[in-house]
Design a protein that fits this description.
By secondary structure, the chain is of the alpha+beta class. It has a single domain, classed as RutC-like (60s Ribosomal Protein L30, Chain: A, 2-Layer Sandwich). Helix content is 23%, strand content 28%. The chain contains 2 helices and 6 strands, in the order E-E-E-H-E-H-E-E. The strands form 2 sheets. It has a 4-stranded mixed sheet with strand order 3-6-4-5, covered by helices on one side. Strands 1-2 form a two-stranded antiparallel ribbon. The mean pLDDT is 96.
């Protein structure tokens, strides 16, 4: 139902993501808000790697509650505070998605709504 679009007439992606994902005959769509790195106990990890793991754990919980899985994700938009390393953020995405490639945008921003948040992610899933 969801398939990667990768035209041979354009350059490949710059990392492990898809240029586009086509959803055909989808019956259910899930759109999240920007999910932030707040753990269930209301703590916020200090490192960007731990924040990325927390955000993805929160996203996986949302997907499960919607009776969806990582393979239903079609698009991810990640916001990272400028100056933070991007490698742990992309590694957390790749780990959480387990090799499933999605349309992915990563944007650096000067700040987020709270100073302790170093990143947040919004996603779209289709089933």
């Amino acid at each position: 139902m969801n398939r990667e679009i990768a035209p041979s007439s354009i350059a490949p992606t710059a990392a492990n993501y898809a240029h586009a994902v086509l959803s055909e005959s989808s019956k259910r769509w899930l759109h999240t808000s920007g999910i932030v790195p707040i753990a269930p106990d209301w703590s916020v990890p200090a490192s960007i790697a731990d924040q990325a793991a927390t955000v993805w754990a929160n996203l996986m919980a949302i997907l499960a509650d919607a009776d969806m899985a990582a393979t239903d994700v079609v698009s991810v938009t990640t916001y990272v505070v400028a100056g933070q390393p991007l490698a742990p953020v992309m590694a957390a995405r790749d780990t959480a998605l387990g090799g499933h490639r999605v349309a992915s945008t990563l944007v650096t921003v000067p700040a987020l709504a709270r100073p302790e948040w170093l990143m947040e992610i919004a996603l779209v899933a289709s089933a």
